[in-house]
Specification:
It is a single-pass membrane protein. InterPro entries: Fis1 (IPR016543), Fis1_cytosol (IPR033745), Fis1_TPR_C (IPR028061), Fis1_TPR_N (IPR028058), TPR-like_helical_dom_sf (IPR011990), TPR_rpt (IPR019734). It is found in: Mitochondrion outer membrane; Peroxisome membrane. Its main location: mitochondrion. With about 150 residues, the protein is an all-alpha fold. It has seven helices and no strands. Helix 3 packs antiparallel against helix 4, helix 4 runs antiparallel to helix 5 and helix 6 packs antiparallel against helix 7. The radius of gyration is 22 Å and the shape is elongated. It starts with a helix and ends with a helix.
């Protein structure tokens, strides 16, 4: 799963698909295929702003072209996972698994997301405990100094 999540688009591919998308956009007729290819590249970019743009294009495709929804949902789950928006990614994983419940790649993505959520919860608890110890130490020192 890490290989899929860490795969990035080459600059040449991104430029090629962006050029095709912009050409069709200027002509006023963006095909579903061109929009999907460009969105797919953007979701695999190293830049979060590109990933968000790709997600927007994929969400639009889900509405306007339901025939491709399976692929769109998959890349939406990938995009949101790459952005570390795990709860939204999980919603798309669940939607995909309703369509295709035994897809091992998506089940692997679901496991990855759950591990990340658990890891974030542990980090949050550790930060909270550490902050409480620091505050407690400061208060102890302040209280000790005030008795002198």
């Amino acid at each position: 799963m890490d290989e899929i999540l860490n795969e990035t688009v080459t600059d040449s591919d991104l430029k090629k698909f962006e050029k095709n998308y912009n050409r069709e956009k200027s002509e006023g007729n963006i095909t579903f295929g061109t929009q999907f290819e460009y969105a797919w590249c953007l979701v695999r970019s190293n830049y979060s702003s590109d990933m968000k743009s790709g997600i927007t294009l994929l969400e639009d495709l889900c509405i306007r072209h339901p025939d491709g929804k399976r692929d769109y949902i998959y890349y939406l789950a990938i995009g949101y996972t790459r952005l570390k928006q795990y709860s939204t990614a999980q919603k798309y994983v669940n939607a995909f698994l309703e369509i295709e419940p035994n897809n091992q790649q998506v089940i692997g993505l679901e496991e990855h997301i759950k591990k990340q959520i658990d890891r974030d919860m542990i980090k949050g608890a550790a930060y909270g405990a550490g902050a409480a110890l620091v505050v407690g130490g400061i208060l102890s020192i302040a209280f000790g100094l005030s008795k002198k």
